[in-house]
């Protein structure tokens, strides 16, 4: 907590939150491991349904723990942990219901060396990307934690609704990766058609959310945080809520392109996209926050998604032409 510059006034509640989040990391890895198995078995509906249901369930569980259970910020971490556990249990149950899934666990066959090599490239590329993004996000958060307490509280509540929507839309990005993996070798026209269609769906949902955020931002914040908000906290919450919601089309495009490129075997682009995203976080933390303060934090959200999305679009277009040629 000292390394992250967490204010002394928040460390009592932040300590328990941090312990639960660190404990849940292993279950997050288990969930992703099982999710990859389900995707490899060619199932697209289960990951999509679980992604949406898990996000909505996590949000309502967090609210119940706070309102009914009287918990503090640690309710968010506990809801995340329970979501990972529940999703992993459902995925494991689904896998063991299939014949192929039973063979994977009870009659394993060692894959060829080439299969292992391909799996290692895929896993290491994505892990490297997430580590790079995580380092940038940590340094960014470290700088954010030097701001006033009211701003920190406002920021924490302001990102809840956009993150809920973003995590739900991530199901469409998962679907894009599955469709690309199943059709890239046969029909790139089908891949392009479905990726465009998925992005159009994302745009439709994002448009509705943007209108709601622009009109009802204070009401949404008060619904999440209750009464007794200071003016500083309310302004901070509304600013990040509106900007992050308006940036949803960028993050949707970014996730769809990233998943599709990974399914095409373009593993090296993933760490590069991570470097771009982390680079924006570092520049914001070291240059823009000391100069512009909290507004720089909010606007960096759009930039850190927009630049990788633009780079991913260029690589995606080049990759599609190569495969079609």
In short:
The protein contains twelve helices and no strands. The protein has 325 residues and is mostly helical. Helix 2 runs antiparallel to helix 3, helix 5 packs parallel to helix 11 and helix 6 runs parallel beside helix 9.
Describe the 3D structure.
The protein is mainly α and 325 residues long. The chain has 12 helices and no strands. The protein has helices at 11-40, 45-67, 74-97, 99-106, 113-144, 149-158, 160-183, 188-225, 231-246, 248-263, 269-292, 294-324. Helix 7 (160-183) packs parallel to helix 10. The mean pLDDT is 83.
Strand content: under 5%
Count up the helices. 12
Runs in which pLDDT lies below 50 for 5 or more consecutive residues are none
Largest sheet: none
Keywords:
single chain, about 325 residues, mainly alpha, 12 helices
Task: Give the secondary structure arrangement, pairings included.
Elements (H helix, E strand, L loop, with lengths): L10 H30 L4 H23 L6 H24 L1 H8 L6 H32 L4 H10 L1 H24 L4 H38 L5 H16 L1 H16 L5 H24 L1 H31 L1
């Amino acid at each position: 907590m000292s390394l992250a510059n967490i204010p002394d006034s928040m460390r009592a509640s932040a300590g328990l939150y941090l312990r639960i989040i660190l404990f849940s990391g292993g279950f997050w890895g288990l969930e992703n491991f099982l999710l990859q198995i389900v995707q490899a078995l060619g199932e697209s509906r289960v990951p999509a349904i679980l992604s949406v249901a898990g996000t909505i369930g996590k949000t309502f569980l967090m609210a119940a723990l706070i309102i009914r259970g009287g918990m503090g910020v640690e309710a968010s971490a506990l809801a995340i942990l329970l979501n990972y556990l529940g999703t992993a249990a459902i995925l494991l149950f689904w896998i063991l219901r299939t014949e192929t899934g039973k063979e994977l666990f009870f009659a394993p066959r060692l894959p060829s060396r080439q299969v292992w090599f391909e799996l290692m490239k895929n896993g290491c590329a994505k892990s490297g990307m997430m580590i790079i993004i995580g380092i940038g996000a940590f340094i960014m958060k470290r700088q954010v934690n030097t701001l006033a307490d009211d701003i920190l509280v406002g920021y924490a509540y302001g990102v809840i609704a956009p993150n809920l929507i973003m995590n739900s839309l991530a199901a469409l990005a998962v679907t894009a990766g599955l469709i690309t993996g199943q059709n890239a070798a046969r029909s790139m026209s089908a891949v392009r058609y479905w990726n465009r269609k998925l992005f159009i769906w994302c745009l439709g949902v994002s448009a509705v959310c943007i209108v709601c955020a622009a009109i009802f931002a204070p009401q949404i914040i008060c619904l999440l945080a209750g009464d007794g908000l200071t003016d500083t906290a309310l302004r901070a919450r509304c600013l990040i809520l509106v900007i992050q919601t308006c940036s949803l089309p960028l993050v949707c495009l970014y996730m769809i392109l990233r998943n599709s490129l990974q399914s095409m075997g373009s593993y090296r682009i993933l760490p590069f996209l991570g470097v771009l995203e982390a680079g924006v976080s570092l520049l914001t933390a070291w240059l823009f926050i000391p100069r512009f303060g909290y507004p720089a934090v909010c606007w960096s959200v759009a930039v850190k998604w927009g630049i990788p999305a633009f780079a991913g679009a260029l690589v995606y277009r080049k990759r599609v032409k190569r495969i079609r040629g």
